[in-house]
Amino acid sequence: MIPSTLFGLALFLVLLAPGLAYMLRHERVVPAQQYSAFRETLRVVFVSVVCLTITGLIAAGLRWLVPSETPDIGRLVEDPVDSVREHYVQYTWWVLALIVFATLLGALAADPRVVQLLHRAGETRAVRLLSGATDTGIRSISAWY
Prior knowledge:
Helix content is about 75%, strand content about 0%. It contains 7 helices and no strands.
């Protein structure tokens, strides 16, 4: 589905911000081979979805812990026009904060220490058993990057 309005395009770009922050930082700090445009696009989308999901879960937890300080999403779903009209400043600040948090989370995910930790976790016996990976000792990674 392609965005057909200017608002849709802006929303599309904002929602890809965490993945873009991840890719920009990852390319700067972690040496890697060049991938196809399709694979890089999938990576941006995947990282964005993961970061936005984590951010949404944290926002839901905040709503559960302190319901008086967070926006009422139930009211927003039931009556969006009146809810936004009455609390547009609160919604704007919350959306901005959540997008910034998700983008920072994406940039943090590309930190070399986090990447190294994920590589070490991928080499554990439990992860190899769950993923079905076998240890042949042969790596298919080129040393020319």
